[in-house]
Amino acid sequence: MNDYIKMVLCLISSFLLSLFNCKIHLKKLNLKPKDQSEVIVLKPHHKFVSCGGIDFILSTIIVFLLFNLPNLKHKNIAILLFISIYFALIGLIDDLIKIKAKDHNGLSATLRIILEIIGTLIFCNFTTIEFIKFININNTYIYIGSFAFIYAILCVVGTCNSINLTAGLDGLVTITYILAITPFLYISLSQGNYIISIFIVSLLGSLLAYLCFNFNPSKLIMGDVGSLSLGAILACIAILLNKELLLLISCGIYIIEALSVILQVSYFKISKGKRIFKMTPIHYHFIKKGMKESNVVLLFTIFAIVLSIIASILGVLI
After folding, report:
1. Does residue 232 register a pLDDT over 70?
2. How far apart (Å, rounded) are the C-alpha atoms in residues 126 and 74?
3. How would you class 155 by CB atoms within 10 Å of its CB: exposed for 0-12, middle for 13-18, buried for 19 or more?
4. Does residue 243 carry a pLDDT above 60?
5. Are 226 and 179 in contact (CB under 8 A)?
6. What pLDDT does 216 receive?
7. DSSP letter assigned to residue 69
8. 107 within 8 A of 35, measured Cβ to Cβ
9. Sign of the dihedral defined by the CA atoms of residues 222, 166, 15, 213, in that order
10. Which contacts (CB < 8 Å, 24+ apart) does range 45-50 have?
11. 84, 27, 82: which is closest to 54 by C-alpha?
12. CA distance 189 to 126
């Protein structure tokens, strides 16, 4: 069967499975978050269920394995499965602490980052570090030696936590993430990397189904189990394709969100109580200024489309 036909079937399969999982989740699981205080303040009557990330990650893994049965011994399959499951488990533990223990802090920030660093180092070991010894700029490879480990940690941990900060508005992370990972599908296809292409297509199908429940007003939010795993997956795929610098473009939305928090906290301390933004991450600033949630998501989506197109062009050409 033609590889492109397989990918279409993969997209449809993951979409249907994720759709089924999301419906079961809403009916059977009562995971109502107590952790997102900013959501409760801005939308006090908004009722939703958390940990939706379980649905699309599980669907992605199942379909990915089914469409790669002849290649199960390939190293990239083990890498992608490990990253998806490991970071999803960190997020799930964090979510369950917030939900079941009614502790809005969840895992401590230090412990979570330590666990993320450990996962990244295991990923580096899987890849035998050869994938990240060099930074690829316009097919010119720059040797970075032992800094490769720190470089990988910055990519993975930074992407994870910036995507996690962006969560909060209905559909925001899901839509922008679909746009952020699409350039890497083009790149994997251009490199003939069938395994990574199938994984991305499986993830896209699962996310599109999840988005049906995540539109405003959302019935299902992904929680940390979704946002952390999505961040790790995106960063690791970029590293495996040797196009990690493109994260600076495709993840531009998440970088801005993270910077807004850093600037707000820093300025608050320096100025002894003054703020740059009404509320951070910056998408809440627009809400506080009077913009409708749907308009903020639309604004960020347009920006993400532009970044996705730029990243796609640069990724294939250089």
Report:
1. yes
2. 11
3. buried
4. yes
5. no
6. 78
7. G
8. no
9. positive
10. 46/217, 46/218, 48/217, 48/218, 48/219, 48/220, 48/221, 49/25, 49/219, 49/220, 49/221, 50/95, 50/99, 50/220, 50/221, 50/223
11. 84
12. 23
E strands, the chain, where?
Answer: 134-137, 140-143
If residue 47 lies in a helix (H) or strand (E), which one and from where to where?
A: none
Report CA torsion sign: 95, 305, 314, 63: positive
Give the contacts of 2 (CB within 8 A, at least 6 positions apart): none
Q: Which two tokens stand for residue 106?
A: 């969840």
In the structure, what pLDDT confidence band is assigned to residue 37 with cuts at 50, 70 and 90? very low
Q: Give residue 38's pLDDT band: very low, low, confident or very high (50, 70, 90).
A: very low
pLDDT tens per residue, range 106-156: 788 899 999 999 999 999 888 765 555 667 666 677 777 778 888 899 999
Both tokens of 212, joined, read 């049906």
161 or 102, higher pLDDT: 161
CA dihedral of residues 60, 296, 159, 14 (deg, nearest 10): 10
Residue 35 confidence (pLDDT): 44
Does 33 sit behind a cis peptide bond, omega within 30 degrees of 0 on the bond before it? no
Q: Which two tokens stand for residue 314?
A: 């640069």
> What pTM was estimated for this model as a whole?
0.91
The Cα–Cα gap between 47 and 43 comes to: 9
The Cα–Cα gap between 206 and 196 comes to 15
Q: Which tokens belong to 51?
A: 């940990």
